[in-house]
Structures are given as structure tokens and as C-alpha cells.
Amino acid sequence: MTPDTQEFVVAIDTGGTFTDCVAVGTNGTLIQAKVSSTPPDFSVGILAGFGALAEAAGQPLEPFLANTKLFLHGSTVVTNLLVTGRGSKIGLLTTRGHRDVLHIMGGAWGKVEGVSDAEIRHIGQIDKPAPILPKDRIVEITERIDQAGDVVVELNEAEVRDGVRKLLDDGVEAIAVCLLWSFKNDAHERRVREIVEEMAPDLYVSASADVIPKIGEYPRFSTAAVNTTCGPEFSNYLAALRDKLERGGLKRSMLIMQSTGGVVEPAEAMAKPYQAVASGPVGGLVGAIEVANLNGYTNVICSDMGGTSFDVGLIVDGKAIRKHVSMAGPHVVYSPSIDVISVGSGGGSIAWVDRSGALRVGPESAGASPGPACYDRGGTRPTVTDADLLLGYLDEDGILGGALALRRDLAEEAVRKHVAEPLGLTVEQAAAGIVRVVDAQMADCMRQKTVESGYDPRRFVVFAYGGAGPVHCAQYARDLGVQRVIIPLGNVASVFSAFGIGSSSVRHLEEATAPLAAPFDDAALEERFAPLVASVRSKLEASGFEPEHMHIERFADTKFTGQFYELELGFGEGDLPTSDALVSLFHERYDQVYGEGAGLRSAGVEIVNVRVVGEGRPDGLVLPDVMADTTAAERAPTMRRMYWPTIDTWAEAPVRAAADLRPGSRLEGPAVVEGAHTSIVVHPGDQLEVLEQGTVSLTIANR
Prior knowledge:
This protein is an alpha+beta fold. Among the domains are: 8-81 and 236-275, ATPase, nucleotide binding domain (Nucleotidyltransferase, domain 5, 2-Layer Sandwich); 84-229, Rossmann fold; 349-437, no CATH class; 506-616, Dna Ligase, domain 1 (2-Layer Sandwich). The strands form 8 sheets. Strands 13, 14, 15, 18, 21, 22, 29, 32 and 33 form a 9-stranded mixed beta sheet that branches. Strands 3-2-1-4-11-12 form a 6-stranded mixed beta sheet, sandwiched between helices. The radius of gyration is 26 Å and the shape is globular. Its EC number is 6.4.1.8.
């Protein structure tokens, strides 16, 4: 097979600072590239990423696009729309008497959801987030369906048309439809949506029953509104990106990463854009599961330190921890997603001194433009990357494979002016302080995800990836008490979220509110699942999967009678458990989560929601051996002066090229291993070992 005819699976993850790109050829060759992201038009960076991959593959861009047999994409577009408040201008049609749902925000729910424990202790000082739309763009219409799904008041279609005209006159760019009890009977919502589509065929419309047909008035309304405000921009982005790529030569499928942990076709992604929130970090967890399974790790703290943020998720007993209510920017959404939390601690996070004279790092980031001061792109404020350069962890000759040289003098000036002089420190002391602060913040984030959730981090290994993760992982793992850090696929760790996106399955999910109380009727429970299973199978068939290549799972959200929150119980594709077995399974799960004896077993058990997840694995990325030619002679290391916080001193240390290491290679710190897109910092007393596929293991010494 010649280079011009080899086909590739390509995965690209667009982050706030960098766009990460991975391609695996039919001969198993892995190619990676890392280019700057290009907000507000992220498609420019994606095309640049394709160009960089094509160059590395030895093909012109057009043939490379033509030889791309599958393109999988994770995007930060939806997250950016919500964080910046730049979504589309929307209107809402709702049941008469319920226009205040999105402003009341479920009482305290909208105020405390997503808020840290420290902030909750000062709840009186916290304001609710601004509503996603003002009341003058919420139109009430006469209709009513009751909790049983029966029509109590017929839909007044004349009022619907009047309401749509009002919203169109107000210049809305999209309309959400949220009616009471539509998850029990969506006939009125369907008809309202049809009327909107008749009156404004080109307008984006989102009905709550199509988005998330679950009980919970405020989160259902909020989810539909979030979906609607992101819909037009995200749809336009995907359509324009696909058009650009097709004009450039792409002839095959494009799949879009979701926070659920799978990929879907563009049409479904356009219909449910809210599920694209945090899709990049979720991709990292999907990839981590692949590598963890290969190396026998079942409990993993996944840490992704990129240019803008630090993202943390958990794998427990080989499966990613999930959540069903999450935050999309400042807004609550129902989202059956992999649970990832983020803090503004990335390589581009800006260091500053507050009014009390305390050194702070983040959450503001220098982003892709202007970037850290050392990038010489106009940035003048010090960042974590500037501090890493001054401490010797990064090479002045550049990052991104040498494509971006780093200016030490600019980093020094930024740190001196904004940190060292205000605090009366030397530049080196200030740089060391910046790194200590950001490492502590990341350890605190991981502690929140583990200790505060009932997990002992000492029983986990840490997976560290992202461009800055391998630079900082030893210190934040040491702070957490973890003794083993895994850098998955070595230098590929810098673009590991893209790799995870490329190894994702096509994933379709259907759920519904279906209340049942124990003792459960076996036939009734099976009846609740049957239409959801049929729908998921139909979607997988439409995606081109044969039944033998489908994997179907069923879940039930279960609780004690009278409780507000549920626990998810999972079942395979075979027979459902009997009523007694299901109740016992719930009691066992409840004791596992909350402690033995915590449940009030006499209260009775209820099922609230049922859920079906179907997966089909496309012919995507495989886990390749990313090691270089093992017959090449190793080069002698160079020496560089670096600061080592564990012994609080500066010392010369060897710098090794990642390409020179082989499976079985071992190093003892202090040392640095440099790859094209990241560096692994090995502190004094720590030990590095190279495993299969180029994965690196760090054993962390106690300090």
C-alpha cells in the first residue's frame, strides 16, 4: 500500500487553546498533530489540523481528505456559546400560568447546582444565574395535560399562532416548546412544533419531549432552552464544517462526540447540541478506559491539563462515573453524561496578585490568542506555561514539534512585572510560586472528585494527559497521596482526548419517566423498556450496524419512596431481574454508595425513569504501538538547569528524547523526557518506566 492510497480514521478535538488531531492508517500507523485553535471560526483550525496530518502522512491535503474513511469530531463550540452567553436569541412557548419556571429555577436548585461546597457555606452571598431568556420572550398558550397524560384543556391553536407571530416580530432566532406533562403525552407539544415549522420553516425549533422526556419541570424546561439557544449556531457550524471538508475532498462520514461518551451523526448532534458540552474531556475518559483495560487498571483518576482548563473524571471498577443532572455553563440540564468537573487551571491560566497580596492562578486564560507571553503573540501577562519555561521544564527551542519557539525573555518580563515585583520575589521564586499554586489547585480538584465523593485516592492510579498534564502530574499526584501515574500512549498523551474520541462507539440513548412501585410487575417493567429498546435498535440499524454488532443496556433510576434523588441500576440485554432481585440490588447499591445500614428499607422502593443505551463500534481507532523504530541508536541526553520543588533547589538534570525510549526503559529522577507536544517531568526520587504501546508509568516517591 502506497502512502497516497492508505486510508485513515481521523479524530480532532477542538479546545479553547489548541486543536488536537490524531489519525490512524490502515497499516496501523499513528499520526498526531497539534495546532492552535482559531476562535471564533474553529473550522479554520480544523482544516489546519487536517493539513498538518496530511503533511505528516506524506500526502497532499485533498488526497488525504479523500482517503479519510471516518472523521470523528469533538468541539468546544457549545461550551463557548454558553459560557460567553452568545447563544441565539430565543423565545419560549409554554402552558398558561407557567411562564416563571425558568426564572424561579426550581427554588434553590438553580442557585446551588454546580456551586462548590465552600460557596454553599456562604449561600447568602450567592446570586442565581441570569435566566437564559427574559420573560417578555416567554409566551403562554392555553392547553393542559394532566399527570396521567390525559387532555384536560384542548390546545388553542389560534393562541399558538399569535404567540409565534409575536416572537417572530421580536426577532427570535429559535423557539423552544415546553408544556406541562409533555413527557406523559407529547401530542400538544408536537402540534405546537408543527405550527412553528409551518409559520417559520427555516427557524430552529426544539420541543422538550424530543430533547428529554423526563419528569422534573425546571430541569426539563432548562434543558430545552439551553438546547434551543445553542441549536442554530452549532447547526450552522457543523453544516459549514462539513461543506468545507467535502469541498476539500472528504467523501466519508463525519461523527460528532457527545458528553454521553459516544458519537452520533451530525443530524442528531444538531437536534441535541446540549449533549456536546464537555465532549472533549469526555473523549479523554473514553480513551482512558481503553488503555486502563489493556494495562489492568480498574480504578483511575483521569486528569486532563490543557491550555485553558483542568478536567477530572473517575473510572471505578472499569466504568466511568456518570451523572444525570449537570451544568451547561450556568444552567441546569438533564444530561446522562460522563461526569467531568473542570477548573480554570491550564497551561494558559494567568497568574495574578489579588488586592490582599495573595498569588492567584486562573481561572482567566490567555487562550490561543494572544496566548502565554513566551509565545510572542502579543500576550503580556504571565501564565503557567511561562513559569514552566522559566523553571526549565520546557525547551526554549519550542513546542508543537518545534513549530512554536518560546521566548524566555518575554516570560521573564511578564512574571517580573505582574508577580515578582508586587510580591517582593525574584523571578525564579515567583515562577516556582505560580507552579505550586496551580499544582495545589489541581490536587484540590481531584480531591473534590474522590475524597468528597467517598473514594480513597490512594487506591487509584492517576492518568495524566493533555499538553500540560505530563509536566505537572507528579506534583499534583504526590499532593493527593497517589503513588502511580500513567501517561497513556506516551507522547500521544498531549492529544489523548482526540484519540479517545476516535475510539468511541456510536451511542444512542432513549429514556422515559415510567413510575413503578415495588413489588414490581415483571410484564409492566418489560413493557416500559420495550419501546425504548426498539427505538435504539432502529437508530443503530440506520447507522449501519447489524444486530450482532450492537450492544444494548437497560437502566432504571430507583429510589426509596419519598426520596428526591435516585440511584441508577444497570441490567444487560437478557431477562430483567425479578421484583425481589431488583429490590435487593437497589439495597446493595444504596449501602455501597451511602454506607451500610443508611437506607430505610421499610420505606419501599420505586422506579422513576427507565433508560436504554445502545452502542455500535465503528471501524475506528485501534490501540497502536506508538513507539519509534526500536533499532535506532539512543542519543546521549542533554543537560538543563531546572528547579525541583521536592528538594527546593535548582539542579542540572538530563533531558531525554521520548523517541529514544523503548518498552522496558527506566529512568530515575531528576530528568525530563521531551516529546513533540509535551514533556514528562520526573522529579528527584520518582521513577519512570515505559510500558507497551509507549505508555509511561511514573512511580511517585513519598515526600
